[in-house]
Write a structure and sequence with these properties.
465 residues, alpha/beta, 11 strands, disordered N terminus
């Protein structure tokens, strides 16, 4: 897949930097992260973060903080300190996920970006220039703001995916409010709530939760002030295609004649994609890529990404495929306990749509779910992981997948090689069983019926309860 890091868009630089020079820069520190010199993430409540997988800093400058909040964040003391740490073989606590993957030799988000950027002459030159000058200037970059944004316009969503949480799904939030027994499984506790009709108005105000931060004038002004220099825009959610403000932003970019110079990347569950969206908005951008969130296959998919329907996702993929000359199709997937075997058929299904040579060559770069911990496949009982490794190695489907897809499974096997301590071997699976049974009761679902292969592998742990 052609990602923003492989863009042919001209970035304003006066010379070119060789891949070798970029390698020297990135190899000076095992933790060097290019993202901190061109990218920023804005989460569902307006926190500015280092990237999409980093946790928010304790004192994040929210984008609704002021009309200049994005620039204030970009060369803040926190960001300069983070650049310095990552340039000196160290990781901020917010970067724990990449630190753990780097330690065991699995491609991390950080290392994937290093590899992708080194092959883009213009972007690697831009980042090299930013980084070299920042290192000489107390890690303050010459640019006043990032050129790449990953923006989550709130948590509005129509699905309740089992590996998700209410911070990214309004439906999960409503489900927890209606079923307080599920709150113990939330990553953040709900302290207070106030419902008006069917819409949540306020939640945990003491924690500054505001899923509609993007409507505040401070954010609007701050964001619009950096749009002229923006090169890459990524939107996730929640479900971004449900957000009317997203289309207001796209329309503004089209009207201002900026869209033709911007690469657009949207991660979507694809249940709401339409021909009109594609033709009225997406095709006006320099490049557009749609990453379809997909987890599981058929009944397993419908169980995990409840209440999605498999036929809807098939129809959406066929629609997007018709625009293959203008839209790059990709998949956003997770490695997690509910799909540990069904994912084999999922990969076979995805390979039908992997028409881009790069996707076949490099794979999907799946996310490894590690929060909540009971969905982290490396924390499954050691005996289960050994069985899984045997299943994967002997699978005819996996063995005939395109090169890049096979690479995903090679890394998954490496991830499963982690050994639990004896006293910890059953901790995660017991939590998984409790969570599964609780959610099945609320949703009137049955793990045994919807995920028969996973059930066979794990049923002894359910029978023990």
């Amino acid at each position: 897949m052609e990602t923003p890091e492989k863009s042919s868009k001209k970035i304003n630089v006066n010379w070119t930097t060789s891949a070798e020079d970029f390698d020297k820069l990135s190899e000076q520190s095992k933790s060097f992260c290019p993202l901190l010199y061109y990218h920023s993430t804005i989460d569902t409540i307006g926190n500015q973060k280092l990237c999409c997988i980093a946790t928010p800093p304790p004192d994040s400058i929210k984008v609704s903080h002021s009309t200049n909040s994005i620039q204030e964040w970009w060369n803040s003391d926190y960001l300069k300190k983070s650049r310095k740490m990552l340039n000196n073989n160290s990781y901020p606590i917010e970067c724990i996920e990449c630190k753990e993957k780097d330690a065991i030799g699995i491609p991390s988000f950080r290392s994937q970006k290093v590899d992708a950027i080194r092959n883009n002459e213009q972007l690697r030159t831009y980042i090299y220039n930013q980084a070299v000058k920042a290192i000489k200037n107390n890690f303050s970059t010459p640019s006043p703001a990032p050129i790449n944004f990953d923006i989550k316009f709130g948590n509005l969503c129509n699905l309740k995916c089992r590996m998700c949480d209410y911070m990214s799904s309004s439906q999960i939030l409503k489900e927890i409010i209606s079923n307080p027994e599920l709150e113990e499984f939330s990553r953040a506790k709900i302290d207070e709530h106030d419902l008006e009709g069917n819409e949540l108005r306020t939640i945990a105000e003491d924690k500054n939760f505001n899923f509609r931060y993007f409507e505040k004038e401070n954010f609007v002004q701050s964001f619009e002030s950096v749009l002229d220099n923006t090169v890459f825009l990524k939107f996730t959610g929640g479900e971004p295609l449900l957000i009317s403000n997203l289309f207001k932003v796209l329309k503004k970019l089209i009207d201002k004649k900026l869209a033709s110079d911007i690469e657009l990347h949207i991660i979507t569950n694809a249940t709401k994609v339409t021909k009109e969206m594609i033709e009225d908005y997406f095709i006006h951008f320099k490049k557009v890529s749609l990453s379809i969130s997909l987890d599981g296959y058929k009944d397993n998919y419908e169980y995990v990404r409840y209440p999605a329907r498999w036929k809807v996702i098939e129809n959406a993929l066929e629609l997007v495929k018709k625009y293959s000359d203008t839209i790059i199709l990709d998949f956003s997937i997770t490695f997690q306990t509910y799909t540990i075997i069904s994912m084999i058929k999922q990969y076979e299904f995805m390979s039908k749509y992997a028409i881009e040579g790069d996707l076949n060559e490099n794979g999907t770069h799946p996310s490894y779910v590690n929060t909540p911990t009971y969905l982290d496949i490396k924390l499954l009982p050691n005996a289960v992981k050994d069985k899984l490794i045997d299943i994967y190695k002997s699978s005819d489907i996996i063995n005939r997948l395109p090169k890049g897809f096979k690479k995903d499974w090679t890394n998954k096997i490496k991830y499963l090689s982690y050994r639990n301590k004896k006293e910890d071997d059953l901790v995660a699976i017991k939590q998984f069983v409790r969570y599964t049974n609780s959610l099945d009761k609320v949703r009137n679902q049955k793990f045994k019926d919807s995920c028969p292969q996973e059930w066979e592998l794990l049923k002894e742990y359910f029978n023990d309860q």
